[in-house]
Amino acid sequence: MADPTLTEPSEPSRPAGLVLRRAVPDDVDALVALICEAYLVERYFVSGPRTDRAEIEDLMRRGEFLVLEVGGRLIASVYLEERAPSALPAGSALERVGYFGLLSVDPSEQGAGLGRRLVGEAESWSRARGLGALELWTVDLRRELRSWYARLGFREVGTAPFEAPDRKLRPCHFVVLHKSLGGSELATAAG
Predict the structure, then answer these.
(1) pTM of this prediction?
(2) N or C: which end of the chain has fewer CB within 10 A?
(3) pLDDT (tens digit, 9 = 90+) per residue, 11-32?
C-alpha cells in the first residue's frame, strides 16, 4: 500500500506536527467520533448522531476522506467525491464537479484555519481531476456557514430537501453551493 501522507504543513499558526493524509479503513471509528463531535452544534434542528460506521465505510468506497492529524489523533477531516452536480446556475454546462462534505474540525481545534485548509485541499483535489467547480451542501439554518463559504468564494445555486426528514426537529433544507475553479462554465454563467 502506498504511503497515504500527502504533506506536512509548516504554517506557524497550525498545531506542531500537523500531517495531512488520505484516510484508511483503520480510521473509520476515529472519523465517526470526530464528525459526530463536530456536528453536535446541529442538535437544535436534527436528532441523533451525524453519522455512523456504515455510512463512513460506504462513503470511503465511493470517494475518499482527507484527514489532518497531530500525533496520530485525527483533528479535522473532509469527504471528497467526483459526481454530477446537484444544481447548476443558469447557462452552466458542467457535467462533473468535485463534491465535498462532512467538513469537520475537532471543537478544541476550531479557529486555527484547519477548515479553510481542508477546503483548499478540496479545491486542489478537484482541480487535479480537471473539474471546473466545487460543490457542497449546507443546511439553511446554518447561516454562519453560508457566510463563511461565501467569503471563500462559494455562491448559492440551488436547494435540496433534507435527506433525513424523520430526524428533523424543525423545518430545514439544504442549500447547494458552488465555487468556480477557474475557466469553467460556472465562471461564465456568473458573468
Answers:
(1) 0.85
(2) N
(3) 435 678 899 999 999 999 999 9
Q: How far is Cα 22 from Cα 67, in angstroms, rounded to an integer?
A: 6
Compute CA 135 distance to the chain's CA centroid, rounded to the nearest angstrom.
Answer: 9
pLDDT digits (tens, 9 = 90+) for 57-111: 999 999 999 999 999 999 999 999 999 887 766 556 678 899 999 999 999 999 9
The gap between the terminal CA atoms of the chain, to the nearest Å, is 45
| Domain boundaries 5-190, corresponding CATH code | 3.40.630.30
How crowded is residue 29: how many other Cβ atoms within 10 Å of its Cβ?
11
Residue 53 to residue 135: CA distance in whole angstroms: 24
H or E, element range at 56: helix 53-62
Contact in structure between 64 and 83 (CB atoms under 8 Å): no
Q: Sheet with 97-105: list strands edge to edge.
A: 5-7, 18-22, 64-70, 73-83, 97-105, 133-139, 173-180, 155-161
Domain boundaries, the chain: 5-190
User: Grid coordinates representing 24?
Assistant: 484508511
Backbone phi, then psi, for 15, in 5-degree steps?
-60, 140
Q: Residue for cell digits 476550531?
A: 110
